[in-house]
Amino acid sequence: RAAARAAAIPPGHRPASLGLDFLNSILAGDHEASYRNHRRGVDEGILAPGTMGHAQLVQDAVTLGRFREAVEVARTVDPTRGEVRGWYAYWGSFAMAHHGLGEFEEELQVARRARELMGPLRIAPLYPEVRALAAMGRVEEIAGVAEDARRMSSAPSVFLRGAGDYLVMYGHEAEGLRYYREAVAQARADLTREPLVDRDFHLAEALLALAAALGSEGRDEALEARALHLESHERNPHFIDPPFGLARAAVILGDTAEARRWSDHLAGTEPRGRYGGHTWRRARIAALLGEPEEVARFLEQAYREGLRVQFAAREDPLVMRHRDHPAVAGLLRAR
Question: pLDDT tens digit string along 181-232?
Fold first, then answer.
């Protein structure tokens, strides 16, 4: 059908042709093709400066590890006008481009500019702000951002867990542990106040983050998380996060065979349209198992399936444990 539609486009109708090429690349999860289409659209003047298509090139460049190019393109976009106004994907990609280059002060400025322009009700810009602060060791400044998140979010435990992740990722284990404990306490409070299904999930994830940070002392938290995820899996066997949680709990509890069984289970549960989500979770399980070669193998597979690995991996403390291993470092390097 795609070929038939392409044949029906009048000769020389470049916007329609580009649009169809772009749609096909998105549906296929083909990042290189998506980049080529957006690059062509910008270079040939098909995508007007400041449009969402123009700004999309920033995200595509980051996905391919072309961080400097992403920064240069982002600086040509006016985020106060047109389609890009209020569009967080632009800001998130701009911040990640600086992060990939190790330009953490610039990343922080982008995140704070995003907060300024997007208003007090948008929590997303707070994540790169905390990531940059953690990377620079400015740990004391994170408390104020976390307090803002508590006021802004209906599920603040998620943000607190994310703050813990960034702190652990950059070597601030004691501070990260404190935020994980706060995330567990907040998730329990949320569950008591409003016992929704996703509140169970938030509590289980906070418990697992805390258990992983505690190591051998995190057995009780891992057992509680395991019970919550097992109940969720029985309630909805098609949801892929409970098996992922059960695998992590198994690793923490010392049952690596059980963790591998859940990882294998994930391999057979991926419906079309998830773009490597199950394989990404298998990479994270391998990271917790201490298998960097397997981490790299799963990351490569997830990328081919459509996952934006540069974004996902740099947000995850499990995978980033292995960032200096040659196989993983090669996937994350700037190009």
Answer: 999 999 999 888 765 556 789 999 999 999 999 988 999 999 999 999 999 9
Question: Does the pTM of the predicted model rise above 0.85?
Answer: yes
**pLDDT averaged over the chain?**
89
Place of tokens 């106004």: 85
Identity at 222, one-letter amino acid code: A
Identity at 171, one-letter amino acid code: G
Look at the block and give the residue holding tokens 């940059």: 132
State the Rg of the chain over Cα: 21
How far apart (Å, rounded) are the C-alpha atoms in residues 112 and 166? 17
d(CA 235, CA 226): 14
Q: How far apart are CA 90 and CA 114, in angstroms?
A: 9
Q: How many residues does the chain have?
A: 335
Q: Is 178:133 a contact under the CB 8 Å cutoff? A: no
CA distances from 255 to 23, 62, 252, 262 (A): 44, 37, 8, 11
Q: Answer for the pair 107, 128: CB distance below 8 angstroms, yes or no.
A: yes
Any idea which residue has 């599920």 for tokens?
Answer: 155
Largest CA distance in the chain: 67
